[in-house]
Design brief:
GO terms for molecular function: flavin adenine dinucleotide binding; sarcosine oxidase activity. Keywords: FAD, Flavoprotein, Oxidoreductase. By secondary structure, the protein is of the alpha+beta class. The chain folds into two domains: 4-47 and 159-225 and 333-389, FAD/NAD(P)-binding domain, CATH 3.50.50.60; 91-152 and 228-330, D-Amino Acid Oxidase, Chain A, domain 2, CATH 3.30.9.10. Helices cover 25% and strands 28% of the residues. The chain is built from nine helices and 19 strands. It is globular.
Length: 390
């Protein structure tokens, strides 16, 4: 069987892969994108209708330039395609507990978000509990003493549309898509990489791996020791009082207790749907990705409503409209890894995104493409080096 050749092969076409393939094609690179499914799909981490985006990222300062640039790219893509990708409805980050809530390694997630907003000159308001209740009646149940951070430039992006739009643009610019093909092996050659993808074999000058939950198995050490895959559940509950929600309601993150489990996030009701998407984040590692249960039990639905929704958000019933399962692939410090593979020459790794990657994906794709083409990116990626785990 003959080997196909390309300049760059991108493995995995979720959030990061689609963005990277688009930016490579935009730069004139002969690029091939490979995915085991047909993206956008619901088998990985980049689905669920909506994903929060905000400039003051509580996970750390290194992410701020990425999300700023991503917002610009979403708007550029909207202008090119006519698709609605980015809904700038604002983001409200709240702490309604007497004690601080830790999240993604930050001891006080809301305070850290406020500090980043101040440090980077991000337009925002710090709200009291009474101000939150007055402006956003759906959060009427929050406790006195609550603190809120409202960022008007935040909101949500539509992941499936973003992926599809970038892949369509990449193809229009000359990129090739190979779908329904699992990459089973990468082999470094003199000056290139052999890629086994289903029944096909490609030889690429460079390979960029954006394989999410499948990265550890494909890449081996040290990734198999560093990365853990965690099952996540997304819920859409029926609204009881749609009129309680202002015409423009924000996406939100609500910290309502002292532990990692005492935090949820959600989105404004999408017009015409009559439901509200709410979710939490879980960090229990799967023993095997083959053991991932994609069903959501009645007990899970009941626990979610009792612990996260009831007493925290008004106007939402316990009736489930739909539920979905996705995964996070998580590093020990909840940060990203964007770096060269330590033993496979000409292979760049763009994973894991630790559950907060989609908002940054457009800019990461651009930065990784720049790094691939010229050896350096306009946005500094050094904070995501593999060496920090040494």
């Amino acid at each position: 069987m003959s080997e196909e050749r390309c300049e760059v092969a991108v493995v995995g076409l979720g959030a990061m892969g689609a963005a990277t393939l688009y930016q490579l094609a935009k730069a004139g690179v002969k690029a091939v994108g490979i995915d085991r499914f047909a993206p956008p799909h619901d088998q990985g981490s980049s689905h669920g209708d909506t994903r929060i985006t905000r400039l003051a990222v509580g996970e750390g300062a290194a992410y701020v330039p990425l999300v700023r640039r991503s917002h610009q790219i979403w708007r550029e893509l909207e202008a090119q395609s006519g698709e609605a990708l980015f809904e700038q409805c604002g983001v409200l980050v709240m702490s309604s507990s007497a004690t601080t809530t830790s999240h993604h390694g930050a001891a006080d997630f809301t305070a850290n978000t406020i500090e980043l907003g101040r440090t980077y000159g991000i337009a925002h308001e710090v709200l009291t509990s009474s101000q939150i209740r007055e402006r956003f009646p759906q959060f009427g149940p929050i406790r006195d003493g609550a603190v809120g951070y409202f960022e008007p430039e935040g909101g949500f992006v539509r992941p499936e549309r973003c992926i599809a739009t970038q892949l369509e643009a990449a193809q229009a610019l000359g990129a090739t898509l190979i779908t329904g093909a699992t990459v089973s092996a990468l082999e470094s050659l003199g000056g290139g990489v052999r890629v086994k993808a289903g029944e096909r074999t490609l030889v690429a000058d460079k390979v960029i791996v954006c394989a999410g939950m499948w990265s550890a198995n494909l890449l081996g050490e040290p990734f198999s020791a560093l990365l853990k895959v965690c099952r996540q559940t997304l819920y859409w509950f029926k609204l009881a009082e749609p009129t309680i929600f202002p015409e423009v309601s924000p996406s939100f993150i609500l910290a309502h207790g002292p532990g990692e489990a005492d935090i949820c996030y959600g989105f404004p009701p999408i017009p015409g749907e009559g439901s509200m998407k709410i979710a939490t984040e879980q960090y229990v590692a799967l023993n095997s990705i083959d053991a991932l249960d994609r069903t959501v039990s009645a007990a899970e639905v009941d626990e979610m409503y009792r612990k996260q929704v009831a007493g925290n958000i008004a106007g939402v019933t316990s009736e489930l409209v739909k539920a979905r399962v996705c995964t996070y692939t998580v590093t020990p410090d909840f940060g990203f890894i964007i770096d060269d593979h330590p033993t496979l020459d000409n292979v760049t790794v763009v994973s894991a995104c630790s559950g907060h990657g989609f908002k940054h994906s457009a800019a990461i794709g651009e930065a990784v493409a720049q790094r691939c083409v010229s050896g350096a990116s306009q946005i500094d990626l050094s904070a995501f080096s593999l060496s920090r785990f040494a």
